[in-house]
Amino acid sequence: MEFLKRFSLKHEKEDFTTVIETIEQGVVFKGTNLWILIFAIFIASLGLNVNSTAVIIGAMLVSPLMGPIMGIGLAMGINDLALLKKSAKNFLFAVGVSLFTSTFYFYLSPLNEAHSEILARTTPNIYDVLIAFFGGLSGILATSSKLKGNVIPGVAIATALMPPLCTAGYGLASGNWQFFSGALYLFLINTVFIALSTFVTVRFLSFPNKEIIDLKTKKKVHNWIGLIVILTLLPSIYFGYEFIKEIKFKSQANKFITEQLNYTDNFLITKKTNYKDQIIELVIGGKKVDSLEIKTLKDNLKAYNLESAKLIIKEGFSVSNVIDKNTINSKSRVLEEYQNKISEEENFKKKNKIVFQEIKILFPEITSFIMTAGERHTSEKLEPVTLCIIKLKENNSKSFDIKKFQDWIKIAYNKKSMAFIINE
Question: pLDDT tens, 206-255?
């Protein structure tokens, strides 16, 4: 049938000898190949360190790490013991170089924070297995085809061999064994299932065997392959199950928050959901939520399959029932005032930083500068005041023009009245 012919690979198959030679060339790490690997490690480590997805993708495209993994799969598929030994030897060497280089980089790097790009590679699951397997299938099919196109770069990005190794290096450098083991397990998943997909495809395309082995040895080899695959697969199934439960927990928690917290006189400021500890933490502003309302909310958790979750409600700022409701037109006005207050404080801090840079140029006698909002107590009333505190260099008090500085700072902050404290 014409429809089934569309799926045929026969007319596009590359010569088997050419395919084997191509894969063998990418197995060995020395000279150019080795230096490209080292540069790719640095690129990936830098990308992880500054949390740049684009840089990490660049490292994946440069990395030649897939070569020995496909070599292992090909060697098992065509019964080439010499190629298997060479591929395994170079694979272990490449892993060792990668771990050493990434650990060295992260040990020296002043940036120690674990960003999202690092965290994403510490909790592998069954979905990573599927990505590695189908990515490996795409890679070996493209290598075995005359129409290679741009599949290989796409496979390099999808299977992402380099970032997990560099994340493992981060774990070693920071002494975080959870990150190290999680990232190394993700790398193991990619390695095993890229090799497996290569092995399956080589057998499916009927590559010629290099050596003829007896049935007993063949069965033994297959048993070992099956054991390695199962041992690699089982933990990922468990982690995948936990991953799905976490997604469902967060989804139901968000649904609960959206549907249940719809009171007229208060509103949600922040929300946090923690699947591991089964906690839903809410910070609510506006009218105080009484104990009866909290109890009702907790009872309603069951309707969302969240009966095991602990609901924590905190007050961000509350508006007392005693206050006349005419003073607050809406929830949005209260939130806007709260946000404006925060914004004013942030702007004030930024203004101080800019002004101090100018002070260092215009008034070099000043060594430190503090500008803050305060209150002035008088016999009649309490009034707000902007307080300026400066410290002068030793033996500079006589030459310092206090009046000039006071006039300048008032203009800089657009303040007519300010209080000054000058430490000499």
Answer: 888 887 777 788 888 888 989 999 999 999 999 899 889 989 999 999 99
Q: What is the pLDDT of residues 115-134, one digit of tens each?
A: 777 877 788 888 989 888 88
Distances (CA, A) of 343 to 337, 346, 347: 10, 5, 6
Q: What is the pLDDT of residues 228-242, one digit of tens each?
A: 999 999 999 998 998
Q: How far apart are CA 106 and CA 95, in angstroms?
A: 16
Q: How many Å apart are CA 193 and CA 134, to the nearest integer?
A: 9
Structure tokens at 228: 């390695």
Instruction: Identify any residues that bridge with 270 across adjacent strands, giving them in sequence order.
Output: 283
For the record, the structure tokens of 229 come out as 């695959």
For residue 285, CA distances in Å to 18, 281, 294 come to: 69, 14, 14
In this predicted structure, what is the pLDDT of residue 170? 92
Please classify residue 417 by burial: count the beta carbons closer than 10 Å to its beta carbon, then call 0-12 exposed, 13-18 middle and 19+ buried. exposed
Q: Which amino acid is at 151?
A: V
- 8 A C-beta contact, residue 171 and residue 177: yes
Position 247, amino acid: I
Q: Which two tokens stand for residue 100?
A: 């050493």
Q: How far apart are CA 90 and CA 71, in angstroms?
A: 10
Give the integer Cα–Cα distance in Å for 111 and 114: 9
